[in-house]
């Protein structure tokens, strides 16, 4: 099997699987209980928050709220931080967990507007400038696009926003960026940042929302007051400890992984240039995460290609897995891509566990399939 769909989810590291078992079997105590083994688990959770802050380059005084997914973190950020009577701005390139939440707020009567993205997948700064003012209470844009890997410079953009409107709260979805590039949050004007465990070899069902000190979103789940009252429910201790174990390993190897994956991508593109014609990369030429490669092949259907590759036990995606039931691709559409470019799209996403040999095999198989489909005029 060759797995090239790491932006969708990743395989859990063996040491992560071990930690999960440990916290389910030996250290299974409820962190809110009052006896020593439970208090020790509580301490482990607090230490886990400090470790995650290090990976984010965040101040110690800032907050980490653990919850069930990045989707929940994005919901808490948008629902919990929007202000009555103030406008909400959201980029058109967002993942469904932000985009659909913004649409729900719109349905509920909030004043929501969408910021354009450019043909390279990055935020359209001119459109942002034309829409940002003191009436905007909350803005949400992503650090790295899950569709194309296009990187938004969160330092520059957050500085720009606060210069124009100092009171606007800035939320960034950092799911595809976390432990792949360094957000250095303490040197940005970002107020809230979302991350997810299962994109970095941690378990599914764990996410976190980082918040600046003193920023208190309105809770969306009420109960026993865990996570400083911001997210009730007994903590998923095993999942959280698995998440932080994965994050520490990814963070330690971040630079090396980046260089390694950059090389995989380069190799993939160079081979594809030799083997196949009439295709183009969707994304930014200057600021793009190497881990994500979105390609449109002329005259074929990406989904057909995906299933032909599946027969060879090669797994890729046609874009965000959360979008797979939708017709067309909302993000590529926002980038101004034609219907044929959207239809002919596949997303390859690498991890450091992939090899150069795998890129050679996949390019070879893709080329064969594309030629076959074109011959059949499929
Ligand atoms: N945001 C982005 C950019 C994503 O890529 C994803 C998952 O694909 C999510 C949010 C949702 O993450 P989760 O599966 O943890 O809810």
Structure characterization notes:
The protein has 378 residues and is α/β, with parallel strands linked by helices. It has 2 domains: 2-9 and 254-375, Alpha-Beta Complex (Aspartate Aminotransferase, domain 1), CATH 3.90.1150; 14-252, 3-Layer(aba) Sandwich (Aspartate Aminotransferase, domain 2). Helix content is 40%, strand content 15%. It contains 12 helices and 12 strands. The chain has helices at residues 14-25, 36-56, 70-81, 96-107, 125-131, 154-164, 237-252, 254-275, 302-311, 330-334, 339-343, 356-375; strands at residues 2-3, 63-67, 87-91, 112-115, 136-142, 169-173, 192-196, 207-211, 279-282, 292-297, 314-315, 345-349. The strands form 3 sheets. The protein has a 7-stranded mixed sheet, with helices on both faces. A 3-stranded antiparallel sheet has the order 9-10-12. Helix 2 (36-56) runs parallel beside helix 7 (237-252) and helix 3 (70-81) runs parallel beside helix 4. The chain is globular, with a radius of gyration of 21 Å. The chain starts with a strand and ends with a helix. The site of pyridoxal-5'-phosphate has 14 residues, from helix 3.
Q: How do you describe this structure in short?
A:
This protein is of the alpha/beta class.
List keywords for this structure.
single chain; alpha/beta; Aspartate Aminotransferase, domain 1; Aspartate Aminotransferase, domain 2; 2 domains; seven-stranded mixed sheet; three-stranded antiparallel sheet; 40% helix; 15% strand; binds pyridoxal-5'-phosphate
